[in-house]
Amino acid sequence: MSNVLDALRFRARRIADLLMPQECFVCGSMSGAAALCSACRNDLPRQPASCPVCAVPTVEGATCGRCLHNPPAFDASRAAFAYAFPVDRIVQGLKYRHRLALANFFAEVLLPLGAPRPAAVLLPMPLHVRRLRQRGFNQAVEIARPLGRAWGLPLELVAVARALNTVPQVSLPWKERSVNMRGAFRCEASFAGRTVIVVDDVMTTGATLDELARTLKMHGAARVENLVVARTPSPH
After folding, report:
1. Can you give the CATH number for the domain in which 219 is found?
2. Cys-Cys crosslink for 232: which of 83, 162, 176, 214, Cβ 3.0 to 4.6 Å?
3. What does pLDDT average to in each consecutive run of 10 residues of the chain (236 residues)?
């Protein structure tokens, strides 16, 4: 019964968040039905020219040295913003304060990054079931739903699961994050010949996305691309 009540409360919050007049999440001024006012939206730190593989900023968008010498399992990455103030606070507002209108805002800024090929499938980054219960929703799913509707692409919400409830990546040194993610995903379907677009909120080292791409390619995926709201700067 508690799960049903939690689902109803979540749906009620979502409807209220999307329909009622809002204050801009950043500056607090009235923004109508939008999560951010136009002034704050225009001031957000857009991601500069970046490596087409891992989305880390590079000169004139060249492929970075790390991807040239040690290519990840994924094939491409696109990010809308640099993970800096106030984008970091906006991402946290969606994840931890349940400001669900922000998911629609993130989908809107991802749309201009380019529609994937028609045969692609959208895969929101899976959450472990324990973390999903704690949070009440998967922010990547909420961002991916409007994208799927706009592009006419299916969302894969069942075939891939988070098998391990890993230590949060943010709590680990950069060099330990790849080890932390080994064996983290379980796939129970074939993606033979498919292009999979993985949707996520933040890309840091790329270790989680790399492990997910590795799992998808073991199950036949021909290409894996990442579509993320924000990219953190490289530690090097």
Report:
1. 3.40.50
2. 83
3. 45 54 89 92 97 96 96 97 97 92 95 85 94 91 96 95 67 53 85 96 94 96 97 76
Provide the angle, in degrees to the nearest 10, between the axes of the packed helices 101-110 and 139-151: 50
Structurally, the chain folds into a number of domains equal to 1
At 179 the pLDDT is 53
Q: Look up tokens 């498919």; give the residue.
A: 194
Distance between CA 17 and CA 33 in Å, rounded?
9
